[in-house]
Amino acid sequence: MSTLALVSALKDHSEDFEFYPTTDEMLSAVRKDIQAILSDPFSDKYPIFSALDVGAGDGRALMRLTDGDRYAIEKSLMLVERQDRSIVTVGTDLFAQVLLDLRCDVIFSNPPYSHFGAWSEKIVREANAKLIYLIIPVRWQNDKSLQSAIESRKAETEVLAQFSFDTPDADRRARTVVDVVRIRLDKHSHNRGRSYRSNELRVDPFDLWFEQHFAPQSTVADCSNLDPKATIEARAKKLISTDRELITSRGLVQALSDFYQNDLSDLVGDYERICGLDPVLLGELGVSTEALAKGLKLKIEGLKHVYWRELFENFRPVTSRLATKTRQRVMDKLQASMSIDFTPDNVHALCAWLIKNCNQYFDDQLIELVERMTKKANVINYKSNVKTFAEEGWRYGRTPEIERYKLDHRIILECWKALDYGYFGDQSPTLDSTVADLLNDLMTVANNLGFETRHEAPAGRREWEAGQKVLFHFTDRKTGQRAVAFEAKAHKKGTLHLKVNQRLMCRLNVEFGRLKGWVRNAQEAADEMDISVTQAQAAFHSNLRLGNDALLALAAPLP
């Protein structure tokens, strides 16, 4: 869809919040400056860094600026849907979002010009980043609130370039002249023309926020022996556990959000009352501004963490369907998001990101699993693929470029080690962790293909003996009967033998062929793989996909 068509669609849905995509020239100026500041002085490689785009649109600027972690705040759900799956949406409304705890290297923003001043001021005051890049009208230097924010952060500003949106290369033209402004918040020094940077910010954004909201002048004692984070976590957990009835009636997301907002309001109110006391009295009591700020910061952090963790517990039906490495990547992303505000919009944005990414992960991990089991003894060509491969093509762990194939239901894999007998070789055998991950991933993919395996014990917790088969079962979702999904034999020399349920292998092969683009429909799958059309129809598109109902389930009242 062209930008003009996209803008028209945004207007039709009342979601055009001044979407003017940043031009390539502007992004090139920002990229060049980032490289000059963040790159290794002994390398000409473009640096990898984390970035937050506030008002990210369809994500094109983030994709151009960094290959590192990408975070976005964007109000238009249509634009969020068009963002690359590597982009994590951490908020939808800047003014309902606190940036203090969202740590990243760079913040970029091409704000709505009708209120760029308030937008830019909030970013500057709350940014927990080394560098800020703003695409803002040239009159920014006359904005007193923005200038005050820059001064409060003791920041350095520099105009990198000046551009107009009224040029042929602008995807959406406007008679606006803008500066590309860099605002530097980190401590750094110069020596012989070379810049040395520090991860330390000149002014901590939380300290600035605390000073604006609270006004005690006492500077006595530090209360360093207190653990306010643990205190607030314990209180929040107790509230959640005792009010399950409210969660059931109002829906998980809304109930948790209400709990969080009430806790946060009470917490800030307590500190406001303390700070309203006479400064001399606070000094006599041994209370300092520094101690109060530290306590409040830790309590807010603990409050966010406990509510996000409660929500993540309810993601298990989704994350349990991810393979080992994929699940860890997703959980790492979720853990990194625990510092953002716990609001319904942020929760729904994060859930939407999870669903969008997991659907792709479900397909990717199926392909990866089959390719891990692709060895010469396990491969059967499609009927139309008459090409054969010489023995040398499989040597040294290589896999030749096979055009179209399926796997036999009997699999033989040569592993570096299948069983572990301990350092001296005198212990009872346990399954090697790499082999255990493979078998667990096979169970996960089988579950996504309709073979219920979620209640099966993981491979690593089972008893293993060399050459003895171990059975992995599934439960038929229609009849409730258990049957064997696959059996595995691990041998002392490192060989792993698998015998996979033929119905499961049929689904695995058909979905692999579909995802690789080798078969376009059930009839083609039947013809190529020598199976019935009925079998092919049952297998085609059988891999799990999450829909919007998964997101709505979190918001709906619980049964």
UniProtKB/TrEMBL annotation:
InterPro entries per record: DNA_methylase_N6_adenine_CS (IPR002052), DUF4942 (IPR031339), SAM-dependent_MTases_sf (IPR029063)
GO molecular function: methyltransferase activity; nucleic acid binding
Domain DUF4942 stretches: 302-515
Pfam families: DUF4942
Statement: the UniProt record of this protein carries the keyword Hydrolase: no
Example GO biological process: methylation
Keyword Ribosomal protein: no
Protein known as: DUF4942 domain-containing protein
Organism: Marinobacter flavimaris
